[in-house]
Amino acid sequence: MRPSGRAADEMRQVEMIPGYAKHAEGSCFVKFGDTHVLVTATFEQKAPPWLRDTGKGWVTAEYGMLPRSTHSRMSREAARGNQTGRTQEIQRLIGRAMRAIVDLTALGERQIRIDCDVIQADGGTRTASISGAYVALKQCCDWLYNEGFIERHPLTDTIAAVSCGIFEGQAVLDLDYDEDSAASTDANFVLTGSGGIVEIQGTAEEEAFSEEEFLRLLRLARIGCTEIGKTQKQVIG
Prior knowledge:
Strand order of the largest sheet: 1-2-3-5-4
Catalytic activity: tRNA(n+1) + phosphate = tRNA(n) + a ribonucleoside 5'-diphosphate
Number of helices: 6
Domain Exoribonuclease phosphorolytic: 10-139, 157-222
InterPro entries: ExoRNase_PH_dom1, ExoRNase_PH_dom2, ExoRNase_PH_dom2_sf, PNPase/RNase_PH_dom_sf, Ribosomal_Su5_D2-typ_SF, RNase_PH, RNase_PH_bac-type, RNase_PH_CS
Binding site for phosphate: 86, 124-126
Largest sheet: 5 strands, mixed
GO molecular function: 3'-5'-RNA exonuclease activity; tRNA binding; tRNA nucleotidyltransferase activity
C-alpha cells in the first residue's frame, strides 16, 4: 500500500490554471497534489547573441524554490550569490524539454523565457514544472502568432513529464515526497504527446534495477503523461 493510498498507476490530482499571472504572455499555476508551481513565459524580441543572423530563436528556463516551499526554510539562492548544481540541472532540463517541441526557425530571432517558481514542494517539482511550462509556452506562442510577430505557429508537439519509481518493491507512478525519499529507484520521464522520448533520468538509490523494472516504469510514465496531456488539452486546447 502506498502512503497516499493510491494505486500503483494512479496520479496525484493534477490541476492547471492557465493565465494565472496577469502580466506574462503565458502562465500556468500547476498542482501535482501538494506540489505547487507557478510558471510564466516571457517573450523577448531578440535572441541570444550566439544566434544573431541565424534566423533562429531560443527557449530557455529558470527554476527556483521559495524559502518555505519545503519543511524547513532554505536560503534564497540569490542571497547566497550562486545557484546549486541541482537548480542548474533542473532548469537546463526544462529548457531542453521545451526546445524539443519548438521549431526555432518559425520562432525567428526571438526568445521565450520560462520561469518556474516552486511555491510548495512534495516531490516531482521538475516534472510539474515541465508539464506546466508547456501550458505557459503554448499560451505565449499563441499570443505571438495572433499578434503577428510570427508567420507560423512554432509548436510541433505537446510535452509532459512525470516521475516513477520502485517503492517497497513495486513500480509506482508520480512519487510524492514520502515515496521519493524512500524509493529504491527514482526516475523522471519527459515524453511528447506523439509518444517520443525527450529525456529519462533514472537512478538506483540502493541495488541496481532491472531492464524489466525499467520497462514497467516507462509504461507507467506513458500512462501518467497521457493523463497530464488530457488536463493540458482541457485547459489550453
